[in-house]
Amino acid sequence: MIELLTGMLTTAVIAGGVLALAGMGELLTERVGVFNLGLEGLMSLGAVGAVIVVNAGYSPAAAVAVVMALGLVLGAIFALGTVALRADQVLCGIALTFLGVGFAAWIGRPYSGQIVHTQFAPIAIPFLSDLPIIGKAFFQQNILVYFGYVALPLLVHLLFFHTRHGINLRAVGENPAAADAAGVSVQMIRFGYVMVGSALAACAGAYLTLAFVPAWTEGLVAGRGWIALGLVTFANFMPLQVTLGAILFGTLSSFGFAAQANGWPVPSVVFTIMPYVGTVAFLFIRALSQRGSHRLIMGPAALGHPYFRDER
Amino acid sequence: MAELESATIPSPDGSANPPMVEMRGIDKSFPGIIANAAVNLDIRPGEVHALLGENGAGKSTLMNILTGIYQPDAGVILVDGQPVSFRKPADAIAAGVGMVHQHFKLVQAFTVAENLHLGFRETPLVVSRAILRRRTEDLEQRYSLKVSPEAPIYRLSAGEQQRVEILKALSRGAKLLILDEPTAVLTTEEARLLFRVIRQLTADGFSVVFISHKLDEVLDISDRITVLRSGRKIATVLAADADHKMLANLMVGHAVTPDSQQRPQTAREPVIALRRVTTASEQGVCGLDHIDLTLYSGEILGVAGVAGNGQRELSETLTGLRPPTEGSIDIAGADVTRSDARVFVEAGIGHIPEDRLRSGIAATLSLTRNAILREYPKAPLSFGPWLREKAARTFVDALLKTANVAAPSVTMPIRNLSGGNQQRFVVARETRVATRALIAAYPTRGLDIAATETVRSALVALRNAGVAVMVISEDLDELLSLADRLIVLYGGRVIGERQAPWNRDDLGMLMGGRVDDRN
Amino acid sequence: MTAISSDKLMPSPPAKRWRLHRLPNVDRKRRMIAYGLSLLIWFILVGAGLALASFPVKDIAIRSISATLGSSYGLQQTLTLAAPLILTGAAVAVAMRIGIWNIGGEGQFYFGAWAAAGVGLFLPEGPAWFMLTLMAAAAAIAGAIWIVIPAVGRAYLGISEIITTLLLSFVASFLVYYLAAGPWRDPVVPTQAATARIVYELPALDDGAHLGILIALGAVAVLGLFLNYSKWGYEVIIAGANRDVAVYAGIPIRRRIIEVMLISGLLAGLAGMIELTGVVHRLQGGISNQYGALGIPIAAVAGGSLTGVAIVAGFFAILLNIGVSLQTQGLSVHSVLGITGLLLFIIAAAEAAARFSFRRVATS
Fold this sequence. Notes:
- The complex is a heterotrimer.
- By secondary structure, chain A is mostly helical.
- Chain A has a single domain (2-289), classed as ABC transporter involved in vitamin B12 uptake, BtuC (Orthogonal Bundle).
- Chain A contains 12 helices and 2 strands; from the N terminus they run ααααβαβααααααα.
- Chain A has a two-stranded antiparallel ribbon.
- Chain A is globular and about 60 Å long.
- By secondary structure, chain B is of the alpha/beta class.
- Chain B has a domain at 270-361 and 435-511: P-loop containing nucleotide triphosphate hydrolases (Rossmann fold, 3-Layer(aba) Sandwich).
- Helix content of chain B is 32%, strand content 24%.
- Chain B contains 17 helices and 22 strands.
- In chain B, β9 (224-229) and β10 (232-238) form a beta hairpin.
- The longest helix of chain B is centred in the middle third of the chain and has 16 residues, at 188-203.
- Chain C has one domain: ABC transporter involved in vitamin B12 uptake, BtuC.
- Chain C has a two-stranded antiparallel sheet.
- The two termini of chain C are 14 Å apart.
- Classes of the chains: A mainly alpha, B alpha/beta, C mainly alpha.
């Protein structure tokens, strides 16, 4: 029983790590008012890119760095279209997804199915890692997990609610005209956070192949980018809730692990579809619970609307 | 009226200092519109300088240039005698120019404290609720303005929000405060408070630019008045030397005589009757509160009151867009309380909505599609489930003729028409529908003189033809010249009803919520 | 422009410079130029990309064009590929009319194919035309059912249909894969992850493309008729253009949203049936060549017009054909998706850029 629980919890944490990273990246992007629907593509490129870098002999850390730099560049291109040119965010996002998934499939062919040997090793935290059940699950994970579940949410939370910059960036997502009139550089902030969000998405992809699966196959990301999108909404656009949500989804995935381990007579497909069905269900639950309140219905007020200053 | 050179007029403080802010030769145009042409303006320290003009005269554009939101096509701005260039709002703020916009630039979801610290260099890098609150309280002290630091903006009244905006501008070091139509959303009491604040500020050496189209206020509060018309500066006069008639003349360009209305002596019949109609309140906007009201045929009913007292709800209830939670509505005897908008249209109730260019037309669609919007469900425009192309074509041609709008093609998107033409289009479409009644919300808002005249004549013509017309307007002068009967809305109730001859003071008090013994 | 009176008050003649302006309207000419440039840039980029990956670009280009358009067989293939694309493109396009994004077409496709397969495999035998009609109906209804939840969520709760339709798309494909490889697996040929062969086949036209192309064009034509000439279609268009106006005109917006989305799902489901009975003949995990996904760029490039969809679908069919034939050389179907993604991005950016123009203005 203890074995089972430990295993499930460990799987939950690891599985959720992808969502924690990608979700937080998207949170940053959406909080400044931009939808980045290209998460799936960015994650695919990150995943395949990490494999390529590692296979070329570099360390996983280097792979993450390279992949995040790639994410920054792609984010910049995306921002060029959506923020600078004010092109339709949905179209650009879907385009980015197609581009990313397609391109990743192409360049990933030679590596398809190969186990990645150089991965992130778990780092055990002294004392805490000896605790029963939660010790292994929470305190014997690799560095990306610690980053995604602890450092990142704390950083983002502090940034949003305890810094001057946080007030400015949140205003950009809520009312860019007000931010602009107050002297905040709306376009620059949007540009910047789109790039950061993309970098985190790419990092999430690297996490997939270096710390989770760990091998590349076509279609590896399997919709996790879209789950991350739903996660941000469902988490009410709050950083700590995004992390909690990530663990929640990880838990859903871990049921599959438990089923396999114990030979439960439920077809595995049920567990495969659980995260997706779960996201839809949670979105409905959140929407229903918010029907009474009128404020902050589904996010920053200016989300998805490009900003024009000189518009008559 | 000759332009008075600024150099020959003594400034309020008696000295001959250079103006605090000066704008020279400002040009600005947008595709198809010349907003400012060779405008000169100077503001002295410690003065209240009013910028007067009708809608579209160029006041907002000029001020947007002064605050760095727009760039002038030509001209120069000087602050304390030095030429400056404002490439973005931050530059203007740094130079001491602060603006309180007509539509507040506040983040609704933020608290007062957060709004005050938005984009502010002096905000500490690390903040917390306590830090923000304390700093806000310091600001309150320094400028003697009370706000509620922890309250979210969406909970505050218009007057309170405006105070936040003023405090924000002052805290950024504004020496010149620009107020754009500040009393548009205020009650009389709040306006009085605002004027007190303005007087205190100028006594402390700040300057205020007061943009308005309300002659009473302008004459009351300002030291000098600059009048703009059609993008040009017409004159700058001393408030002490000016009066209503002169200013109106300058604004409009010709002598303004009040319309004389000859109401035909037909019997009045009730057309729409509201009995104890109540609608729900939401989001800080008041709903209707047990209203009893009847619209009669052949009469123009004016609805006065400061915006936000139920005007929108009233017009929506009368057109089927907002079913009442209590009470009943009937049209010529038939009960329509639970009916939807279609029924009202079929009963002959036309509606000119408040923001007609946003909710009255679909900008990207063709003229034809916009024309048939109200009448498409029935013959001759449709046949069973199908629309009839040819009938629609005939329809839109006839409509354009009535509206006096010349369009190169009927399939082009309606946003290609000028704003004035779009308004005329909507008015023509609705008057067609209005066989029994027309509910017009702010029908001349945003229109130039010619279009305004057209709309007013159309309303009068409808009235003369026996239609019941209801006009909601923020312009008391307009209501007084058009209406046969006047009601004042306040807090969702009809707080008073009057007939000619009008007493302005009495009406002003009603609009401010003060009911006297009379009725 | 500037009136210079007293020289001591006025600045020296102002310097002129170019500044960017955003136009409220984009006229046809500009839009055509934007499209043309996009296609050009895209061709160049794709060609360069292929060349970098050491594909013999010119060779491919010539062979592909001649293979797909030059020969009768190639033409038939293109039409066969175009049939489901027309439907999935129309599915996205009709939703766009009311301002909704149905990007779960792939899932509705799968679910439709599943329903058709269910009818074809498990109902008692009957005459082909009857069974095929039944299968088509089942597929259409299934496609609509698969979009019901997102439709209700969007119409009544404001939940983003982008996310919900997409997520359910994955669910559908997983379920179909499981069924085809598991409980419905063909007992005769158990090594394939597919069901038994379905006996009912769409008849071929002239020994080439199957009836599906006519069904697709027919369905889209009927839809177009309703959209453009009926009261219902008018209301949909108004609601899509401006919600406030639709309310003002008394149009039941929520009901229209749901109706449009159901039709959208219906079309995608029908596409699934056509592919099943026209080409693949077995229900299997990879039954779709990304038809559902490709519907999105097709509708976007066609600007939401249904006639446009038919034409663009043809173009994409050619693309897909080339992609399929290049599979032997290392290009997977996912790559076609990638290339269309590139096109989509370039077009979106170009359309946005077309709104900007330079104007000469004076500065102080």
